Amino acid sequence: MKSALELDTLKMRLNDADLQGLDLHQRIQRALRALILEGALGPGVKLPATRVLAGSLGVARDTVENAYVQLQRDGFVLRRKGSGSYVPETIGSELRGAAHRRQRLRAPGRSEAQPGAGLSRRGRAILDSGGVSDQTVIKAFATGLPETRTFPTGVWERLQRQVLKDYRGQVLLHGDAQGAEPLRREIATYLNLERGAKVSPEQILVLSSTRQALFLCAQLLVDAGKPILMENPGYFGAKKAFESAEARVVPIGVDSSGILTDLLWADRSGASCVYVTPSHQYPTGATLPLARRLDLINWAARNGKWILEDDYDSEFHYDGLPTACVQGLDKHQRTLYIGTFGKTLYPGLRMGYMALPHGLVHAFTRARSILDGHTPQILQLTLARFMGDGHYNAHVRAMRKLYAARREAMLAAIDRYLGEIVTPLRPRGGMQIACILKPGWSEAKTIRQAAGAAVQLPGLSRLYQGEHKESGWLLGYASLTEHEIETATLHLARALVK
Ligand SMILES: Cc1ncc(COP(=O)(O)O)c(C=O)c1O
Asked: Could you read off the pLDDT tens digit of each residue along the chain, which spans 498 residues?
């Protein structure tokens, strides 16, 4: 059976993470080539005329023409004047032939290299986690992505030049695995003043990201096969980091105020740590009230547990003052505070940090020294100046104002165009809004329909463990202008109610 090109399938392919960053004609060419190689476009199938495909994809005809030319050059498409473009009839046998040749070239007795073959149990756990794919282009409605287009690169560049001049060859050598002292000092001051923390520079460990912090926590605090508690629903990156260390993730429910601390007291799994996002629970956006923060600390102190506090976007709190972090309330040194510059500055920076209990600093620093040594010195010292000269606080203030307006624009657009489809959970801060689908709407179907219109909707249900799952999406708005929010929401609504 010759199957025709399914436009929805092609559109989904065009959004594949490994095609992002390529020119549009290259993405179309690669997506079509993949469909041919997989047999979804079999031998003899006629491709749509360039004009027709260009119209369906909403791109210029030349773009499709360029893709077809390349496919023809590589032998994936035959083009006949007057009759159109076809997948060659011979392609099936060529593909089978290539597979056969690969088979013959293999050493006798060796099996085909399967993903996962030859890996350790831990290696397989890492492979099975699926990894974390980051958004590499600005698009609706990417979650956790800040505004990068207005970042003061001029100031950054000037400070970096100063650092190179002032520290000369020193920054070209290896640095302290715990992090450059000037930056640790700035981070400690910032946390104490702005986040209500109680830390000294000796407790700060400079890292590349929150994810690196979570990976280290899993490696250092949880044995393989042992449990770790985490909020349900919760951040998929944390779950993957824990599962990669072969930890058993035990879900703890949340309500509209955040993690249910009563469930922690009732837990009998024997877990030594709990992962929480108290400022803005991921994904519901709930802020944990003071009474529960104190209960959490009390539980950890009484039972000798660790609290992993992921404070990933607490700077962006719009209704009233942000709540002080759990670390600052904890007199018992049970909290490992985790922060990132990926949201407050820009994600490509790859800088984050931990504020650790005194007793854990040494072990975590050693682990970092084994992992990758340290964060680049030039970046650390440039950031220290950026913070010391007041640019950091000014940038965060400006972004807070911008995102507060964007949250309103996003809520207004949801109300205007998607009011019949979802109920948004109004967050008090953060960079995304959880939207619960109304009865009669399917998460899988809406995600598929949106993908057909080139909108990738992050589903909510995958963030839940166990039987009970909410259906909906998580809409990121921080990286989009108010105009972009408006047009993208309208575009999405049209794709859903065709
Ligand atoms: C809850 C939470 N923690 C951490 C991160 C990731 O931070 P990083 O890029 O520094 O690993 C994200 C990203 O969206 C997040 O949502």
From this structure: 345 777 777 887 787 767 777 778 888 888 888 888 777 888 888 899 998 898 889 888 888 988 888 788 778 888 887 888 888 887 766 666 655 555 555 555 454 567 779 999 999 999 999 999 898 999 999 999 999 999 999 999 999 999 999 998 999 999 999 999 999 999 999 999 999 999 999 999 999 999 999 999 999 999 999 999 999 999 999 999 999 999 999 999 999 999 999 999 999 999 999 999 999 999 999 999 999 999 999 999 999 999 999 999 999 999 988 889 999 999 999 999 999 999 999 999 999 999 999 999 999 999 999 999 999 999 999 999 999 999 999 999 999 999 999 999 999 999 999 999 999 999 999 999 999 999 999 999 999 999 999 998 999 999 999 988 999 999 999 999 999 999 999 999 999 997
The span from the CA of 90 to the CA of 87, in Å, is 9
| Nearest Cα to Cα of residue 308 among 273, 272, 264 | 273
Q: Which residues on neighbouring strands pair with residue 310, listed in sequence order? A: 338
The H or E element spanning position 354 is: strand 352-355
- Rounded to 5°, the CA angle 368-240-400 comes to 80
Q: Which residue has the tokens 């949880």?
A: 222
Closest alpha carbon to 481 in 425, 387, 405: 405
What angle separates helix 391-417 from helix 482-496, to the nearest 10 degrees?
Answer: 30
| Distance of CA 229 from the midpoint of ligand 1 (Å) | 18
Q: Which two tokens stand for residue 487?
A: 């047009």
Nearest 5°: phi and psi at 6?
A: -90, 120
Residues 6+ away with beta carbon under 8 Å from 351: 206, 207, 208, 209, 340, 341, 342, 345, 375, 379, 380, 383
Ligand 1 atom closest to residue 211's alpha carbon, by position in its atom list:
11
Gap between the Cα atoms of 102 and 109, Å rounded:
14
Ligand 1 center to 210 CA (angstroms): 6
Cα–Cα distance for residue pair 249/235, rounded to 1 Å: 12
Q: Which amino acid residue places its CA nearest to atom 2 of ligand 1?
A: 312
Count CB-CB contacts under 10 A for residue 222. 21
Residue 346 CB–ligand 1 contact under 6 Å: no
**How many angstroms separate the CA atoms of 95 and 97, rounded?**
5
